[in-house]
Amino acid sequence: MGASIGKRMTMTRGSMSLGEDSGGLPPQTTVQQEDVILADSERVIKRYHNAAEGSMLQVALAPCSPFSVTPELMRNSATLASQHKVMLHTHLAKTIDEENFCLHRFGLRTVDYLDSVGWLGPQTWLAHGIHFNTSEIQRLGAAGTGICHCPTSNMMLASGIVPVQDLEAAGCPVGICVDGSASNDGSNMIQEVRQALYLQHLKYGAQVSHFDAYHWDTQGSAKML
Fold this sequence. Notes:
about 220 residues, alpha/beta, 6-stranded parallel sheet, 9 helices, 6 strands, about 15% strand
């Protein structure tokens, strides 16, 4: 779950259903039954989601990652989101381990997997987005799928560097997130802007400006949401 500075405050209803006993990453004590997840997700939408213009409280459905949920939950979450006109959020292409997991378990790379469960579109924003190849970046951009850059988390886990300028050039809205406390010891949004600037300097050089970083954190995050 991440936080972004944008035109809305967006609350994600996160979930995990694929535990260690079934080949997933999370401990069994943290997973829920999928019918429980979907029922509670619908409850949260009906109680809290405010779709009015200028609303500062919107709900998105957020199955955590390919490591921790089944394709069935991803598909059913996409259906539920479509029914209630809410957005979708997950973590994707964060590490090479995740890429290999998708190839081994689903026989698909991450973007193919996203497409197979009905998530490739403007209703979705993804945390991380590091390990996409050139054709996948073009597909994400054509679909209008958003990418949330989590620089501190990516550095802490040595995950890699998001190709922000390539994603934006392809058509992806790009914002900034803090990720969760397990991989970010500060969760300070203005610090995240600074980290994004420095990390993108490593990839693209000094052509990335302070104004670019502020754009990702404000207009980019707003567009992504």
